[in-house]
Amino acid sequence: MIFLLRALWAVIRYDLVLSFRHKSNWANAWLFFVLVVSLFPLAVTPDIVLLHSIAPGLIWVAALLSMLLSLPHLLRSDYEDGSLAALLLSPYPLPFLILSKIVAHWLVSALPLILISPVLGVALHLSLEEISVLIVTLLLGTPVLSLVGSVMMALTVSLPHQSILLSLLVLPLCVPVLVFGAGAVINVGLGLSNEGVFALMGAILVLAVTCAPFAASGALRVAEF
Amino acid sequence: MKVNFMLRIKQLSCSRNDRCLFSNLDIVVNPGEILHLKGKNGAGKSSLLQILAGLLLPETGEVFWQDKLIAIQTHYARELFYLGHKSGVKAGLTVAENLQLSAMLMGKNKVSDMLQLLSFFKLEKWINSPSHLLSAGQKQRIALTRLLITDATLWLLDEPFNAIDQESIQLLMHLLQQHVEKGGIVVLTSHQSLAFAGLKEKQWLLSSNSLGETE
User: Fold this and answer.
1) What ranges in chain A are assigned the alpha helix state H?
2) Closest CA to B160 of B174, B151, B152
3) What residues of B are in contact with residue A7 (Cβ under 8 Å)?
4) H-type helices in B80-124, by residue range?
5) Given CB atoms, is B173 within the 8 Å cutoff of chain A?
6) Measured by CB atoms within 10 angstroms of the end CB, which terminus of chain A is less buried, N or C?
7) β-sheet with B60-65: strand ranges across
8) What's the whole-model pTM score?
């Protein structure tokens, strides 16, 4: 047990070390997020009412697309250098190893977006309460995107041109998260309660955490090496 | 429990991209033996090794380890060491980090004496160098150093002599010899002929039409 935890920690730690050394891979996706959100008022209109009403959806769509940009970094390089085979042949259960990789990926691809989103929220005239709801929904929703993405990544990892297929596979499955996430922030403005939305998003997250690592391992087991 | 055959390949067939690589392959490998797979490029040597590792499903046929199907044995992963043509060395990690990660994933403790481990393949000078700065041969030596960490019985090595210098070839030969003398099994592919003094080297020539043992 203690050996398993140590191995999982090693996977997370070395993945983070690698991400830190290849910052440019990730900075592109972070920059994309910030740029999309901040260019919108310039391109559309600086009108406060309009911006306030589209802000939740805008931030959520930008976060989703930004995570889609960084998704190929999840397993692609491991496949190419052969370390994915080492993961498959490890005596430890593959779903746990995959889950560690997903955690490391989420920490690098989603957490920075969540940390910067309050600033973007203020820029788009969201109230303090709306910003806090936005952060809660991002915290509940972005791991689902990473988890769903990992399954699709595992399915397409051995294909030569996977990125188009990847977006087609991931985006439809992420729509519920997007709808609930952006909807919760709008609910605040309408004075509606968000308990139900949080519970639903939490349930989706639990479902994804329990199923996705197993689905991803199953997909990797039949992938061509 | 008496085990009849350590590693048994039974009626194995494999095809890739609708092309039959080999069919009805029957091989038995016993402890202390080296199985040297030979054949032209694309004859299916690497595919056979992947099937033995459980990374690739065969078209038909089965692989048995200690008389049991490999697919149903969870401990098979602990008995097995696989080195593919992609070495699994992460370019962004240093030599030491690569080996620490490998050791942990193999279910071992952290390597405590890294310098001593690296000195076998004369890599100690590069202990903290990022792997992407090293040559192909040095990367291959990093991958081969894992052989010193693992306590697997079955070694599956795809072109292990690729890119490494004469001195390292000798060291690796010595390592393989030690392993089979302890009752281990090595299955390897190589275009080089191996001068294994006093070792039971079994050679198999893989080709789509004919196939046979060449002693």
Assistant:
1) 2-21, 23-43, 48-70, 76-81, 83-88, 94-109, 111-123, 128-156, 163-190, 195-221
2) B174
3) 104-105, 107
4) 95-105, 114-119
5) no
6) N
7) B19-29, B7-16, B60-65, B68-69
8) 0.91
CATH code of B7-89+153-213, in short, is 3.40.50.300
Please give chain B's pLDDT, 215 residues, in tens: 566 678 999 888 888 878 888 888 889 998 988 999 988 888 888 999 999 998 888 888 999 998 888 887 778 888 999 999 888 899 999 999 999 999 999 988 888 889 899 999 999 899 999 999 999 999 999 999 999 999 899 999 999 998 899 899 989 998 999 999 998 999 999 887 776 656 677 888 887 654 555 54
Residue A15 is which amino acid?
D
| Amino acid present at B164 | I
Contact present, B89 and B143 (Cβ < 8 Å)? yes
Model confidence over A12-59: pLDDT tens digits? Answer: 999 999 999 998 888 999 999 999 999 988 998 888 899 999 999 999
This model of the complex carries an ipTM of: 0.87
Written as six digits, the tokens of A137 are 């929904």
Of B57, B74, B104, the CB nearest to A10: B104
Among A115, A126, A137, A144, CA closest to A184: A137
Q: Which of B78, B90, B101 faces A10 most closely, judged by CB atoms?
A: B101
Tell me, what amino acid is at A100? S
Task: Look up residue B124 and give its DSSP letter.
Answer: G
Q: Which element (helix H / strand E) includes B4?
A: none
Check A81 against B104: CB less than 8 A apart: no
B34's tokens? 């080296």
